[in-house]
Structures are given as C-alpha cells and as structure tokens.
Amino acid sequence: MKHHLWTIILLILLTVLLLVGLGLTLRGKGVRMALIHRVRAIMHRGDIVRRGDFTDVIFLHHSVGRNLINQGGVRERLTGAGFRFWDHDYNWEGLTRPDGTLAGYSYGIPGDNTDPDGLARIFSQPAFPWPVNAFSGLLQHEVIIVKSCFPNSNIRSDEQLREMQGYYLRMRDRVDRFPRHLFIIVTSPPLNPAETTPEAAARARALSRWLQSEEFLAGHPNVAVFDLFGLLAEDDPAAPDFNMLRAEYREGTDSHPNRFANETMGPIFADFVIEVAHTYRARLAKQEARP
To answer: How far is Cα 276 from Cα 45, in angstroms, rounded to an integer?
Structure first.
C-alpha cells in the first residue's frame, strides 16, 4: 500500500513537471482541471484491461461519433462480441467506460482539436507508460480509433488537401513504432449540400480514397481505415449532391448524419472493428510463432 502511494505521488510530480515543461503554470481553472484529470487518469489506469487480444478499444470522436455510438448500438454490439469499448468525447465529457458510465476524467485532448492537424499534434506527443498526455492516454488501449468530424470534409483547395494528407502521413509514420497497437482511422462524413460545394466535396472524396489506398496503407499493417465517408456519400456522378451526404441520411441543412444513417452504419462500423482486430491479432500470433 505504501509503495502504491509513493508511485501515485511520483506520477503526480511527473505530471506537474510535464505541464511546466510545456510552458504552463498551475494558475487558472483550465490548467488546474487538466492536472486533476491527469491525476484521475493515472489513478484509474488499472480499470483498463488489456488482455493482449486486441479487445480493448477506444474511439476518439466528437458529436458525429457520439450519435453513431448511441443511435447505432456500437457499444452493445462490441460488448456482445467480447470487446471492452471505451470512447472519448470533448474534454468536458471525457471518457465513457465500457458499461456506458462517465469515467469522470479526460485524456486532455489539446484544444479539443480532432481535425487532422489536431490529431497529428496528439500523435507527435511523447509516449509514456502512464496517461499523462493525450497520446499516452490513448496508448493505454490496444485498439485506437480516431475520427475528424464533418467540417474536415470542407476542403477548399488542392493545397489544403495535400496539407491534410501530410497530417495523416505524420500520424501513420508515428504509429509504426507501436506494433502492439492497432490504429483505425475513420474517414470524415460528407457534408450536407447546403454546406459545401461540388469542388470541396470532390476533394473530400479524394481524401477518403487516398486514405484507403496502397500508397497510404501498404507496409503499415497496424493501420486500418473505415470509410464512413464512402458509406454516407451520394455515389451517383449524375446526382446534384454527388459526394455529399445522401438525401436519406440528412435532415434539413444539418451535416450531422441522421438517426437512420447511424442505425445503418453502427453495426457496419462495429463489425469492421471486430474483423480488423481479429485479423491483426492473428497476424501477430503468426509472426510470433515463426522459429
């Protein structure tokens, strides 16, 4: 018990040093809350059960992901398959446990930014054994799923498209160092026709296709891509809403996929996670069995 207490004290001191090292002070409500969340994350680290079989999953998302989980039965489907499914919303809500209850802390996503530049920033953070920053928090889990929300599909120029590709390449190259983890990228959902243009929508389609290409995935076995964009977007080139959120999946001018979309996509998404996790586990087992 005494050893455990000293371990917690040392981890708290480490967290403080990291905050100071990042140029932060302990003044201000935001920084104090960030420190409290780091301490809680460290103290509850034992709640995460990694059995080495890639059944402990975390999904980093915002509102689109929240709706997909809640309306699409994602947690229930993964739980039924023997998985422990955690998800991380905005920092103010933080982590949700596999049983659907709030954990009471977050992993401290910098600026609450899960756009490609924000994800690249997270994936460039130092990796520690304890959840003292966002990346180290995600690494507490075996399967890590990340998604940018629909504004990410508003790609205004070819230059911006190349910039986004660069962010994903930085993420991909970093995860090469963590073969005991599986990383799943969810492509951003398409925009409502009221909130985009044919040119921007075409670039969003190009990004989703590039993420699924051999150019991006070849030689990186612990990276998989779930094409939410392709499943939700109109695929008829003759349609006025080509590459945009399908009519049956939208309400008014809102780009959030509707309940019907989430009820349709939830099981597909969950089954994809199950399949790629089993496949990657089998791949690793085969590699480790070689003499």
So the answer is: 25
pLDDT per residue as tens digits for the range 17-68: 455 444 444 444 556 677 777 778 888 787 887 888 999 999 999 999 999 9
Tens digits of per-residue pLDDT, 262-285?
Answer: 999 999 999 999 999 999 999 999
Helices (H), strands (E): how many in the chain?
A: 11, 6
Supply 68's token pair. Answer: 């997909």
Helix ranges (H only) for 114-157 are 116-123, 134-138
Domain boundaries, the chain: 1-43, 50-289
CA distance 70 to 209: 27
pLDDT digits (tens, 9 = 90+) for 161-201: 999 999 999 999 999 999 999 999 999 999 999 999 999 99
Helix (H) / strand (E) containing 87: strand 84-88
d(CA 148, CA 191): 13
Given a contact cutoff of 8 angstroms between Cβ atoms, the answer to whether 210 and 272 are in contact is no
Distance from C-alpha of 121 to C-alpha of 159, rounded to nearest angstrom: 20
Is CATH 3.40.50.1110 the right assignment for the domain spanning 50-289?
Answer: yes
Those residues whose C-beta lies under 8 Å from the C-beta of residue 25, and which sit 6 or more positions away, are: 19, 31
Residue type, 123: F
